[in-house]
Design a protein that fits this description.
Radius of gyration: 14 Å
Number of strands: 6
Helix content: 25-40%
Largest sheet: 6 strands, antiparallel
Distance between the termini: 16 Å
């Protein structure tokens, strides 16, 4: 089963370009829900709350940012199923220090949807971060 820090390559809906998605909470044992965020190339208009550099993850080849506005809840069982079917690809996990930066940014970014911030706070209280 998917765990905190796992990463996946999958396209955003309606796009062909694969983005790196990071699970920023462990799946809830009862609902299997987890929060994930995606990594995208840094642009002049990007939310720079969390900038990732080349040494932060093997997938990153240019300055990138976490796109908190697109953070979402996901059923970890579905992720596992789609990886097993070859529709999504798993990638190297995020190291703890990088995960801490991403999680702190989720709480700090003004672009993180409020429902995601509330779900993250609940996950933290439940020990899933």
């Amino acid at each position: 089963m998917a765990v905190l820090g796992d990463t996946f390559l999958l396209p955003k809906p309606g796009e062909d370009i694969e983005h790196l998605w990071v699970l920023v909470t462990a799946p809830d044992p009862g609902t299997h829900q987890a929060i994930m965020v995606n990594v995208t190339t840094q642009r002049p208009h990007s939310d720079v709350t969390t900038v990732l550099n080349l040494d932060d993850h093997p997938f990153i080849h240019k300055p990138s940012v976490i796109f908190y506005a697109d953070a979402r809840m996901v059923d970890a069982r579905l992720l596992d199923q789609l990886v097993a079917q070859g529709q999504f690809k798993s990638h190297a996990s995020v190291e703890r220090a990088v995960m801490t930066r991403i999680q702190n940014g989720l709480e700090q970014s003004r672009f993180t949807p409020n429902k995601i911030k509330r779900a993250f706070a609940g996950a933290a209280k439940a020990g899933l971060t």
